[in-house]
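#onboarding

Welcome to the new folks! Below is a worked example of what a typical request in this channel looks like: someone posts a single protein sequence, and someone else replies with the predicted structure as tokens. Don't worry about understanding the tokens yet, we'll cover that in week two.

Example request:
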Amino acid sequence: PNELLAPILQPSDSIVKNFYIYPNPAKDEAFIRYWLAKDVNKVKIQVFDIAGDPVSKEYIGEKHPLTENEVMLPISSIASGVYLVRLEVAKGNDKQVLFYKLAITK
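Example response:
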């Protein structure tokens, strides 16, 4: 049965690190920053409301290895509230998904 369980990534094995959003709270745009390991082949970013429904299109993020990456997220069309930003990073067959809370004020 243990063969069926996917290995848990240790912090040193992480595909993505240092994921954060600024400014937070934000008004018209927010910047997403994250560090990537080598050989990442996909970075997707999307904003969801607290119910889990998407409120933005899916954005493709920068994929520069072994450094900080930054993506500007336009949020002027999203109403005031608290949202979750989903960052999905894939490297080969491994995938890491992280969430960050974002407050939007108008």
